């Protein structure tokens, strides 16, 4: 089996008001290259918590996560940051696009970070972008990144929307920009946390189609959290997160 991602015995709890709440009680999942899996479950079941752990955005209390041979537990924060930037594309329910930047700039940002910018805070990012948007020594790299971002947006049907800020885009368009941003560094895996949860059914359906075409359709892997069983049924497998345990349906 051409395994890309394996999570074993993942446990995570939160402390709240002196009490410990066990959210994940030993969760396992395996994913092959080019495979898609859906995670469903009630609100508060721990789906986002689990996806954040898979995305190396947080660390589990127990358990191991290995992405293509890289064991998160054995990696430093800078190594994890690089892994997140290069190998993982994350899409959120509320897209988290930066409101001050155009669609094109939002898509370019992970590429700018990969270009070696040290970004420790939003203000670093903003000052870096203003610097880089002036004529710069790295003009070729920048032009290449810009062309890739433009191509991606065009492929996602947004060629006419590159200069729009997020507030001027519809919900479906915002989610397609977020997909382009997740894809700009050509990740191996896309992790999508209810990316259609904020959209009407027909728009959500179209956005899922575009996500599928641009992930599994191009040999990448996808884990998608969704509330919608009809959408989940279009992926390669369905897992239900319940009482801290993930069960294949
Ligand atoms: N940082 C945190 N501190 C304390 N509790 C949290 C934190 N993050 C999530 N939780 C709690 O963990 C549970 C699972 O949350 P979440 O993973 O967001 O669920 P889901 O995505 O399935 O709706 C919820 O009860 C939530 O309130
Ligand atoms: Mg959630």
Walk me through the structure.
- With 249 residues, the protein is of the alpha/beta class.
- The chain has a single domain, classed as P-loop containing nucleotide triphosphate hydrolases (Rossmann fold), CATH 3.40.50.300.
- The protein is 37% helix and 26% strand.
- It is built from 8 helices and 10 strands.
- The strands form 2 sheets. Strands 6-7-8-3-9-10 form a 6-stranded mixed beta sheet, with helices on both faces. It has a 4-stranded antiparallel beta sheet with strand order 2-1-4-5, with helices on one face.
- Helix 3 packs across helix 5 (139-155), helix 3 packs parallel to helix 6 and helix 6 runs parallel beside helix 7 (201-214).
- The model has no long low-confidence stretch (mean pLDDT 90).
- The site of adenosine-5'-diphosphate (ADP) has 11 residues, from strand 1 and helix 1.
Head-to-tail CA distance between termini: 21 Å
Structural domain tally: 1
CATH architecture: 3-Layer(aba) Sandwich
* Bound heterogens, unique: adenosine-5'-diphosphate, magnesium ion
* Major beta sheet, strand line-up: 6-7-8-3-9-10
